[in-house]
Amino acid sequence: MTAPTTVLVTGATGLVGGRLVPSLLEDGRRVLAATRSPERARFGRGVEAVGWDGVSLPAEVLGRCDALVHLAGEPLFGGPFNAARRRRVRDSRVDSTRALAAALAALPADERPAVWLCASAVGFYGSRGDESLSEQAGPGRGFLAELCGDWEAATRPAAEAGVRVVNLRIGIALAREGGALALMRRPFALGLGGRLGDGQQWVPWIQLDDLVALLRFALDEESLCGPLNAVGPAPARNAELTTALSRVLRRPALIPVPGFAIRLALGELADELLGSKRVLPERALAAGFRFAHPELEEALAAELR
After folding, report:
1. Please, what are the domains in the chain?
2. What does R_g of the chain's alpha carbons equal in angstroms?
3. Does residue 130 contact residue 111 with C-beta atoms inside 8 Å?
4. Cα–Cα distance for residue pair 130/283, rounded to 1 Å
């Protein structure tokens, strides 16, 4: 098979999609970017905006691409995590994935994209202490673990129809544009940085350019299917992350945030910051992928200096 030349991307304006789309164009690929308002979209040359409602894509659009990258979803952190927001977070991921899988399965075999990269998250594993977690590890417990399990299961009809599906269990993407790193940087800028809880929890991180490179690698590497841990090769404890960020920003990290305060502020979501996930990218490394930013402090410096 030849490498995919036309790639359809949902979430093309998000944190990951915003760097992925230009990278695909540099590869010489054509990009279809799914957006709710194609008439107002402002993408660069080589990108065609196609309309979608956040759940389904027309069969004729899916039939025009060689590969699909599904990154769209309601942000996990962004307001009180009440029942309505929990439902939006879940529905934006599971319902859209289920609809896309059904649409792909219904296409004639010669019109289906060859590969579908579908976002998931390391939350699949739950909090597991010091246990090393490869793609072979089973699911954990909690809202996000159950969500990720259902999210990945929703892709099965497409896989059963012959599409190569890769479920990307993405860790914390370190990016200057936003996401977790922007949230962490703010208190450091005020001299209020510090570890979270006891700081001993493992943090699965990946520098954003490495994440984009891994996505492009997975598009072309036909041996990859099923779960793929999209994390860097050197997970760090939260205390180590705090120290590294302090050095890169040249700001003190003296004020730890007690676990009870995080739980009071975030409720159920506090487990995503205080829980421990020592996730390793075994399948990516075995397939020959090489990280440009394998060490935490250098990865932070690449984004913040």
Report:
1. 6-173+205-231+278-293 (3.40.50.720)
2. 19
3. no
4. 20
Given a contact cutoff of 8 angstroms between Cβ atoms, the answer to whether 174 and 300 are in contact is yes
Per-residue pLDDT tens over the stretch 181-213: 887 888 887 888 888 889 999 999 999 999 999
Give whole-number Cα distances, 7 to 37, 171, 172, 223, in Å. 19, 23, 24, 19
CA distance 52 to 58: 8
- The dihedral through the CA atoms of 169, 171, 175, 178 has a sign that is positive
The residues, any chain, with a CB within 8 Å of residue 259's CB and separated by 6 or more, are 196, 197, 198, 270, 274
pTM summary value: 0.93
Q: How far apart are CA 81 and CA 93, in angstroms?
A: 16
Instruction: Write the CB contacts of 213 (distance below 8 Å, at least 6 apart in sequence).
Output: 23, 289, 292
d(CA 60, CA 297): 45
8 A C-beta contact, residue 155 and residue 105: no
Spatial contact of 205 and 231, defined as CB atoms under 8 Å apart: yes
* pLDDT tens digits, one per residue of 113-167: 999 999 999 999 999 999 999 999 999 998 899 999 999 999 999 999 999 999 9
Query: Which stretches of the chain are assigned E, i.e. beta strand?
Result: 6-10, 30-35, 47-51, 67-70, 115-121, 132-133, 164-170, 172-174, 202-203, 205-207, 226-230, 236-237, 278-279
Q: Measure the CA–CA gap between 106 and 112, rounded to whole angstroms.
A: 9
Q: What six digits make up the tokens of 253?
A: 């990290």
Q: Report CA-CA distances (Å) from 222 to 9, 105, 108, 167, 217.
A: 19, 19, 21, 14, 9
Task: Give the per-residue SS3 of 76-137.
Answer: CCCCCCCHHHHHHHHHHHHHHHHHHHHHHHHCCHHHCCCEEEEEEEHHHHCCCCCCEECCCC
User: Inter-axis angle of helices 238-249 and 296-304, to 10 degrees?
Assistant: 40
Only one residue has tokens 């944190």, namely 15
